[in-house]
Amino acid sequence: MAALKIKKGSTSHSAYNLRPTFSDVTERHTLAVVVDNEPGVLARVIGLFSGRGYNIESLTVAEVDHTGHQSRITIVTTGKPQVIEQIKAQLGRIVPVHDVHDLTVEGPSVERELGLFKVAGEGDKRVEAMRLADIFRANVVDTTLDSFVFEITGAPEKIDAFADLMRPLGLQEVARTGVAALSRGRL
Known about the structure:
This protein is α+β, with helices and mostly antiparallel strands. The chain has helices spanning about 40-50, 80-95, 125-135, 155-165, and strands at about 25-35, 55-65, 70-80, 95-100, 110-120, 140-145, 145-155, 170-175, 180-185. It folds into two domains: about 25-100, ACT domain (Alpha-Beta Plaits), CATH 3.30.70.260; about 110-185, 2-Layer Sandwich (Alpha-Beta Plaits). The chain starts with about 25 loop residues before the first strand and ends with a strand. It holds the Pfam family ACT_AHAS_ss. One of its GO terms (molecular function) is acetolactate synthase regulator activity.
């Protein structure tokens, strides 16, 4: 009778091998975290990320329940699936955290961002900047004889595309709010 040999580190197809399998692909996730609105909470959340070397691509926070004194933190981060799972688990263990939702895996969601762009230029570049702003439905919120400040809202990809097109036309300065996101449909 031949003995069955299993190499160390190999995966067997057994009921005892219940560990989830993760890929090595870096993914982008949007997390919505409901916390108590009190001093130091945001610092603790950010500390969790910086202390473990996790990156935050976007961070927004605002009070969403004035009577209950709760805030919603929207975090966009990237990492391998096992890192994202660690982030969610560690966020859930912070005492003032009430809910952690991974909008990326929970279903369709809506993401929007606000961007302000200062574009300086004259002549044809100024005309082209106005034409592109019209196409992107950006609003002029300030103008001088040599510059515009455009306001644009939309998905982060739209904001990125607008910035890329404005660079050769005289983009001087950019301010972005970061992503605000909600899941679509009923909870």
